[in-house]
Design a protein that fits this description.
The complex is a heterodimer.
Chain A lengths: L5 E8 L7 H4 L19 H4 L31 E3 L12 H9 L3 E4 L4 H8 L4 E4 L2 H13 L4 E5 L4 E3 L5 E3 L4 H9 L3 H6 L2 H14 L11
Parallel strand pairs in A: 1-2, 2-3, 3-4
Antiparallel strand pairs in A: 1-5, 5-6, 6-7
Chain B lengths: L5 H9 E4 L5 E4 L2 E4 L5 H9 L10 E3 L20 H17 L2 E2 L10 H7 L8 E4 L13 E4 L2 H10 L1 E4 L3 E8 L8 H12 L7 E6 L1 H4 L3 H9 L8 E3 L4 H7 L8 H11 L12 E6 L6 E3 L7 E3 L13 H14 L14 E4 L7 H11 L10 E4 L4 H9 L2 H8 L2 E2 L20 E4 L14 E4 L2 H10 L14
Parallel strand pairs in B: 3-4, 3-6, 4-5, 6-7, 9-10, 9-12, 10-11, 15-16, 15-18, 16-17, 18-19
Antiparallel strand pairs in B: 1-2, 2-8, 13-14
Helix pairs in contact in B: 2-5, 6-8, 12-14, 12-15
Classes of the chains: A alpha/beta, B alpha/beta.
């Protein structure tokens, strides 16, 4: 996994509540069997005026120029500022893959849907929960200042705004550790292989019907 | 010992290890796999040269991409090239790793969340995961079940565990009975309308109360299926005789002595009387009416006969803007009666409502009638090949086709339109599925979530009607 330590990034303000994962990456693009290449279809139905098709280049498609991501002032962005319940709906990890592939490394919102929030951490993407009022303030500042960017420092769990204001944020210890070191979570879990085997042995005795019932012919 | 909730008990019984950093390793008994969220997970295993931890914990079937029309040409005949590759990739991966898969032409194939319970692959007291948010469905069996992302699918394949943090406990109690013709779908839509799509975020929701206890397993699965639409990854319902009767005799359910042992073991799968919940929501069953969603989020729902809300009356600016945006997308006007929405399409299916009880309910409504001339397309997509077969044995397929409703092969179909079944732009569809998000059923499509009987009645009338005013054939 990609490491996340410190980020200086231009902020895109996506001023809309309950952004669902169907909106982040519509279903037709989930047919890929790869983890990459979803960036061109990130927010496809908001970004383009026509219907997008899987496995097809987006070159020449008509852009919705009202949509923030299509405005030149946000070019090169890596921080997405969003509203409550971001990432609700489907469990598709294609949502963080698309955000990552486009260039986002961090999403800030007052709240996230559980599965999306969890999926971000598996992909070196940092979701940050901040209070409603702070998010409101960041929206105001982002809209009013062209090139508005934030410094996000994971070791100290601090966001610094252009005027120098410091905002601290929470992140679970294990998740922080994995992000900072770019750890493969499976590798970390397999360090507890003996504990898993011991549990499994006991469970096999207590609930034998849970084992060996399903077999490929 | 302190009183525990059902979720507490399921958590405790699967806890492998609590780590110093506050995270826990939780053992996973069952993983269901489908073609959309598994290819990258199998590829990850191959790249890291890892083997699946326990093959017999997994069961696979393709559902999202499969055509619901004639399948006699097999996977090679799927016309959409990328869909074909994805279905073929699942077949190849299952063959390579030795995972049992009900392939597209197997009559046991179907929607994963229908197939798992139908086969007895979902059992009380289990942890069940799948790379699909509607895995919450399986909580109806007193199992801890939730959706995961593809990285976690790989994690479960490789380690048979997940790294988790315990959720909080919420109880949604539906007191008393619901009125006749009110279904699990109406109950859960009413709950989501009340608590909102983020109301359950961070919680495991236990659904309880008399109205829930009186539901069949099909109804309970519908309720738990949509827990995620209230923001809760997992929904659970206590095990009772209804659960045990449903599970008994199914292919992968325990048999003989093991059955007796299992049933004894499951008797504890309910919350203790004094268990503490972090949040309790109470709803009177008698107050629940047939529900219809009008907007682009499952919380945008009203009872039949009610009016579409007016954004001017919403004090919260973020919510007001959401309502305005939804009205614009849906092409509807504030204050309009929901009954007056003119429908173009009807979809009866999905992991929410494609089980035999759902299909029977819809068939009873349409029996001997014809769909309205303004309905361009109406279809029933059974949840599995076995349900399709059973419905045909009961003669339900001809009831639908006589009424002008298409009878299809099993799959996810127009719930999310990954296969060829798509709702056209600007068209209104009465759907028994779970999400009314923008573009969910097709680019520009407009979805209204309802129960199967309400969808069937809407197909006949061409608009929404109160199911309690409709003449229903006796079964």
């Amino acid at each position: 996994m990609k490491k996340f330590t410190e980020l200086n990034g231009i902020v895109t303000p996506l001023d809309r509540a309950n952004v669902d994962t169907d909106m982040i990456i519509p279903k037709q693009f989930l047919k890929s069997i790869k983890r990459t290449g979803f960036g061109q279809n990130l927010f496809d139905e908001l970004r383009y005026l026509d219907e997008g098709h899987a496995d097809t280049s987006c070159e020449g498609r008509p852009l919705n120029t009202d949509f923030v991501m299509n405005q030149s002032r946000y070019a090169g962005t890596s921080v997405l500022l969003a509203r409550q319940n971001f990432g609700c709906g489907s469990s598709r990890e294609h949502a963080p893959w698309a955000l990552d592939d486009y260039g986002y490394r961090c999403v800030i919102a007052p709240s996230f849907a559980d599965i999306f929030f969890n999926n971000c951490f598996k992909n070196g993407l940092l979701p940050i929960v901040l209070g409603e009022e702070i998010v409101d303030k960041l929206f105001v500042e982002t809209f009013s200042t062209e090139g508005y960017s934030l410094n996000i420092d994971l070791p100290s769990q601090t966001i610094t705004t252009p005027p120098g204001e410091k905002i601290s944020f929470e992140v679970e210890k294990f998740r922080k550790h994995c992000l900072l070191n770019g750890l493969d979570e499976i590798g970390v879990t397999l360090e507890s292989e003996d504990d898993i085997r011991a549990y499994e042995t006991k469970r096999r005795v207590a609930a034998p019907w849970l084992f060996d019932a399903i077999k490929a012919q | 010992m302190t009183a525990r909730t059902l979720y507490d008990k399921l958590w405790d019984s699967h806890l492998v290890k609590e780590r110093e950093d506050g995270s826990s390793i939780i053992y996973i008994d069952r993983q269901l796999l489908h073609e959309v969220t598994s290819p990258q997970a199998f590829e990850g295993l191959r790249l890291a040269k890892r083997k699946p931890w326990r093959i017999d914990a997994n069961l696979a079937t393709p559902d999202h991409n499969v055509p619901t029309t004639d399948r006699s040409g097999g996977v090679e005949a799927i016309s959409d090239r990328v869909s074909r590759i994805q279905v073929q990739t699942l077949d190849d991966n299952c063959d390579e790793f030795g995972v049992l898969e009900f392939k597209m032409q197997d009559k046991r194939q179907g929607i994963v969340h229908v197939v798992g319970p139908e086969q007895g692959a979902t059992l009380p007291g289990m942890t069940v995961v799948c790379g699909d948010s509607h895995t919450s469905t399986h909580g109806a069996f007193g199992a801890l079940a939730h959706g995961i992302g593809t990285s976690e699918v790989e994690h479960v394949l490789a380690t048979q565990t997940l790294i988790q943090k315990k959720m909080k406990n919420m109880l949604v109690r539906v007191n008393g009975s619901v009125s006749e013709l009110i279904t699990g779908k109406d109950i859960v839509l009413a709950i989501i309308g009340k608590i909102g799509t983020a109301g359950g975020t961070g919680y495991a929701i236990e659904f309880g109360g008399q109205a829930i206890q009186e539901l069949s397993m099909e109804g309970r699965m519908t309720v738990c299926n949509m827990a995620i639409e209230a923001g809760a990854r997992a929904g659970v319902i206590a095990v009772d005789q209804t659960t045990i009767d449903y599970v008994k005799g199914r292919t992968f359910a325990p048999k003989g002595e093991q059955w007796d042992l299992a049933v004894a073991n499951w008797s504890d799968l309910h919350s203790d009387v004094d268990a503490q919940f972090d949040k309790v929501i109470e709803i009177e069953g008698s107050s629940i009416e047939p529900q219809v969603s009008w907007g682009t989020s499952p919380e945008m729902v009203v009872a039949i006969g009610e009016l579409i809300p007016d954004p001017e009356k919403e004090p919260d600016p973020v919510k007001r803007e959401s309502i305005e945006r939804a009205l614009e997308y849906m092409g509807l006007k504030a204050g309009m009666p929901v009954n007056d929405i003119q429908l173009d399409s009807v979809f009866i299916g999905s992991c929410t409502n494609s089980r035999i009880e759902d299909i029977r309910a819809a068939a009873q409504v349409v029996k001997g009638k014809k769909i309205a001339s303004t309905i361009e397309q109406a279809m029933v997509v059974p949840g599995s090949g076995l349900i399709k077969q059973q419905a045909e044995e009961e003669g339900l397929d001809t009831i639908f086709t006589d009424a002008g409703i298409e009878w299809r092969e099993p799959g996810c179909s127009m719930c999310l339109a990954m296969n060829a079944d798509k709702l056209a732009s600007g068209k209104h569809c009465a759907a028994t599925s779970n999400r009314n998000f923008e573009g969910r059923q097709g680019f520009g499509g407009r979805t209204h979530l309802v129960s199967p009987a309400m969808a069937a009645a809407a197909a006949i009338a061409g608009h929404f009607v109160d199911i309690r005013d409709v003449e229903i054939a006796q079964s």
